Amino acid sequence: MNKNTVGSNIKRIREEKGMTQKELANKLKVSEPMISQYESKKTLKLETIRKIAKALGVSYNLLIEPYNDSTFVRDKLDESIMLKHTFNQSIIKYGKEAQCRQAMEELAELIQAVNKMLRYADRPAEPEYYANLIEEIADVEIMLYQLKVMFNIDDDQVFAFKVEKAKREQERLKKL
């Protein structure tokens, strides 16, 4: 099987986590042969990929991105676990209110970074402004993760809102 398909990525990550097809099937409330079918496909519907990713405890991006070898997957999983652990510890240590205030501060810093980039609309921006924009986006993504944890919001809830907003945007774009 091609090692750069959704199905092969599902199988690789499942095996990296030491999970059997039966265990994954139980988590997804599907039959074991269905898992075998998923693992043999080049692609799947996005909603199916998201459900499988959630059952595997990974971002759905890990299922759709091409991989060179299983050490890459293991490293990504290890990094993901380390990130979540670290930022969950921040919530515990600093508390909900402090982290909410930190989120607001990081959002303000992202706004400033975007404004710096807009100043250079007619010419290339300074390299440090690009680096700052990337750093501020990372800070905001961290804070969004923490907000979801603190307020018990899961990725599926956020995704559902994104889908609805995309539909509304499609309607607005048709009117233009």
Provide key terms for this protein:
176 residues, mainly alpha, 77% helix, 0% strand
What does this structure look like?
With 176 residues, the chain is mostly helical. Helix content is 77%, strand content 0%. It has nine helices and no strands. The longest helix has 25 residues, at 70-94. The chain is globular, with a radius of gyration of 20 Å. The model has no long low-confidence stretch (mean pLDDT 86).
Which band does the percent of strand residues land in?
under 5%
The best one-word shape is globular
Instruction: Kindly name the structural category.
Output: mainly alpha
| Cα gyration radius (Å) | 20 Å
Average residue-wise pLDDT: 86
Largest sheet: none
Helix content: over 70%
Q: Cα distance, first to last residue?
A: 45 Å
Order of helices and strands: HHHHHHHHH
Number of helices: 9
The count of DSSP E runs of length 2 or more, i.e. the number of strands, is 0
Stretches with pLDDT under 50, minimum 5 residues: none
List the helices and strands and how they pair.
Blueprint: H1 6-16, H2 21-28, H3 32-40, H4 46-56, H5 61-64, H6 70-94, H7 96-118, H8 127-150, H9 155-175
